[in-house]
Amino acid sequence: PFILSQGNAGGYLIPAAAMSAFNSQSQDLLWKTMQGVSPQGKRRGRAKNLLKRKDLNRGQVIGFGKEKLAFPGLTHNTTEVVNKQTNETKLTKIRPMKDSVYQNFEVKLKVAREGIGQNRSRYKGSPLERGWTGNTIRGKKFGAPLADNKELKFNNFDSVLLDFKTTNIMKGVLGRTKRTSALMVTGNGNGTVGFTLNKGKYAQNARTLRAATNKAGLRLVNIERYEDRTVYHDFFTQYGKCRIFVEQRPAGYGIVAHRAVKAICEMAGIKDIYAKVGNNKNPVHITKAFILGLLRQKTHQAMADEKQLHLVEMRPEEDYYPRLVASPSDGKVRTQEEIGHNEVLDFQITSHEGNLPNEKIDKKSPFIGTPGWDKHLRTGWAIESHERVRRRMRVEHGDVYGSVRSHLYDKYPECIEFKMERRKQDAE
Q: Which residue from 178, 134, 181, 146 is spatially nearest to 161, judged by alpha carbons?
């Protein structure tokens, strides 16, 4: 339709569109205009900080408006009781809305509108479900791999993400493109472990992590374990510039190692171990070096057969008491004359392949020998025996309130340790 208007030089036509509730445009057209980016722009990263869609009708309720009218079926019941004794009812009509009802609606609408566009806190999960730190997913567990054959399942398997990063690649047509890289390790905790380094498309993290988990299940190897809890012997392993010294530990020691090595040990079922990683902390090199060292270790029987000698173990926790752990399978043991004079029988040098860890030198204070250091030592002479005396009193009188006391306690009962108020309340 056109509207006829009169100007100074005559009439002219103004195009006008008839607007009504039946032919009004939807909000999709407006949002499409605000978020419009060409496909080439998306590939170049121009769709990163665009305006996000918002629900402008959030909080609105049909029936509530500025006229403050109560509509039956929308804001109140369609019927109302006239006589409670006979339960007589009648239909309600449109009537003015109570101010308290409308004010309650305005409060809820304000709260709903304030939440539009805000970054709402995501579910963090329990500390056991999260990773090593709070702001990354490294160390998070992603469950067992999925097999292509639905009849087969990875029972008792679990996967841990060791590293996840975003890399940039420069291409001639698309320019700088991004992709992700995930290092995943999986295992059943019973000597079977596998890992993979999987790459994926940017902004498709869920698909990348699932693919990494499944590929790790296709690269499984079996690890030999001593007493199903630790390694067979101390060894040295290296990949690239990463150097790792692994030592066997007694039962109950636990895993004292880099967090990537600890995750691999948990997946492989190793419970007692000590591992020292060198200066290179690259998680990919650490993973490859440690698994390579686990595969290269020799069982006690294999070492005894190789040397044609008895293998004797002496542990510090057993006061270095010699214990025979393996003998040659064929029963033939070499004599002293058959052993070469240049043959190395030091097991530590053999297992570490000549690479021994550097001894840790205790750092001493640079002030030792100065007059100030002597004064520092003299100031502590008066209190150096306090902790030993407190320990002896707790042994003699029991670890209760009043056990640490003065030698004048019989005459002055208040002369006791003043830092035991909590124990005093427990005693009372």
A: 181
Residues 157, 185 contacting (CB under 8 angstroms): no
Q: How confident is the model at residue 160 (pLDDT cuts 50, 70, 90)?
A: very high
Residue 316 has pLDDT above 60, yes or no: yes
**What is the pTM (predicted TM-score) of this model?**
0.60
| Reduced 3-state DSSP string for the chain | CEEEEEECCEEEEEECCCCCCCCCCCHHHHHHHHCCCCHHHHHCCCCCCCCCCCCCCCCCCCCCCCCCEECECCCECCEEEEECCCCEEEECCCEECCHHHHHHHHHHHHHHHHCCCCCCCCCCCCCCCCCCCCCCCCCCECCCCCCCCCCCCCCCCEEEEEEEEEEEEEECCCEEEEEEEEEEEEECCCCEEEEEEEEEECCCHHHHHHHHHHHHCCCEEECCCECCCECCCCEEEEECCEEEEEEECCCCCCEECCHHHHHHHHHHCCCCEEEEECCCCCHHHHHHHHHHHHHHCCCHHHHHHHHCCCEEECCHHHCCCCEEEECCCCCCCCCCCCCCCCCCCCHHHHHHCCCCCCCCCCCCCCCCCCHHHHHHHHHCCCCCCHHHHHHHHHHHHCCCCCCCECCCCCCCCCCECCCCHHHHHHHC
- The two tokens of residue 334 are 């070499």
pLDDT at 2 over 50: no
Question: Above 60 in pLDDT, residue 3?
Answer: no
Q: How far apart are CA 206 and CA 210, in angstroms?
A: 6
Which amino acid belongs to residue 326?
A: A
d(CA 256, CA 64): 65
**pLDDT score, position 85:** 80
From the centroid of its chain, how far is CA 345?
Answer: 44
Structure tokens at 315: 């542990």
C-alpha of 348 from chain center: 36
Structure tokens at 8: 């100074």
Whether the per-residue pLDDT at 310 is higher than 70: the answer is yes
Mean pLDDT lowest among 22-26, 213-217, 257-261, 288-292: 22-26
Task: State how far the Cα of 327 lies from the Cα of 15, in Å rounded to an integer.
Answer: 103
Judge whether residue 11 has pLDDT over 60. no
Q: Which structure tokens are listed for 295? A: 């595969």
